[in-house]
Amino acid sequence: MPRPNILFIMSDDHAAHAISAYQSRINQTPQLDRIAQGGARFDNCFCTNSICAPSRAVILSGVYNHLNGVKTLDDKLDNRVLTFPQLLQAVGYQTAIIGKWHLGHGPKWDPVGFDYWNVLPGQGEYFDPPMYEMGQKKVFPGYATDVLTDLSIDWMKARDKSRPFFLMCHHKAPHRPWQPDARHAHLYDDVDIPEPYTFNDQYEARMAADAARMRVDRDLTAEDLKAPVPSGLTPEEEKHWKYERYIKDYLRCVASIDDNVGRILDYLDEAGLAENTLVIYTSDQGFFLGDHGWYDKRFMYEESLRMPFLVRYPEMIEPGQVRPEMAMNVDFAPTFLELAGALIPETFQGHSLVPLFRGQVPANWQTSMYYRYWMHMDVNHWVWAHYGVRTERYKLIYYYGESLGTTGSHNLPTPKTWELFDLHEDPFETRNLYADPGAAPVVEALKRELARLQDGLDDKAFEG
Ligand code: CA
User: Fold this and answer.
1) DSSP string for 148-184
2) 411-425: per-residue pLDDT in tens?
């Protein structure tokens, strides 16, 4: 089998539950669904730290944030850290990254390992985005999602066709402040979007959740809402009005991504590349779509922890599969290297997903994962630093109550507190069982597993 081309499409903050292939209750994404129908949908793909820069650093470096140095939004990825694109180049791949980077700019942080790079500065702009094309700042007129798709297609057209390619197309959308283009500005105008099941969560026995400042009814800004709040509404009506303002703009941004993924898939068809190109659609993390009454991410809760992961590669992947096995963003780098026939460095901490693509589950496949959100009490969201373990059935989270000196954090001590959820009985994580005497054996086993994972991954930074 010839080595595949790899097209890695990653959006920013697109939760799996806003994709119809994942049974979204609130929108349709027919183009994204094409990837799932022609390949596989992974139902348990998780990020190790649910925030932009850290997730991107994990994907590139193949190691967790305590080792790649990007623990928070304010850290940059030192480009002396080994990343997989350099290794793909070394085995003859043409490599490119187009779109969001968010790992720093300048000689110490610019992308390395890419034959072509053209990236948005920082968070990037939705309209007429300035970009650094191989370090030169230029403005690209148009809507970011269209612009990045055009640039990606143009790069594929102009590539050296004698060699396989690896392309990262990284969208800015649907990141805050959720600015849709004119084409989708009135989508959903006459529709009432249903609220999620936990929209009116009261945060009982979850102090960290109660303290967070990312509530739809209280914390969305005038810039987010883009219209003055109507007078005369009851509190419930006002909350619902804000939810509709937020979620419709979010879904309009998603609709543009869906259209543009359709365009890029059409290009692969027209160019005869569909059979021999592995296409992935994912997002750097999930997002709360009114779940728990929130927007944003950061928490280890399911909606934020879960990444969409759709993959198509007809030469290897049987179409229409649903894969329940646990996968993580740290697994992406070894996956790409195996597909390219490159050696996987022993320092990389993930596991190649290629056996799962082939429908073969290794006997010792991972059944637990380690999560760590390092930022503490950031000025906007007030989310407490935490780490935890998720198994197939349970999740144990520890909020350790201090910043440990991480960037972008405030060193305000917060209560040290634990949460335990039984995901079979309580999939929406509203019943913290940690203090339940009957849960003691489960807690003990999960604490052992947490310690085993931290030890194996060499994460030693704990509170004093
Ligand atoms: Ca993000």
Assistant:
1) HHHHHHHHHHHS-TTS-EEEEEE--TT-TT----GGG
2) 999 999 999 999 999
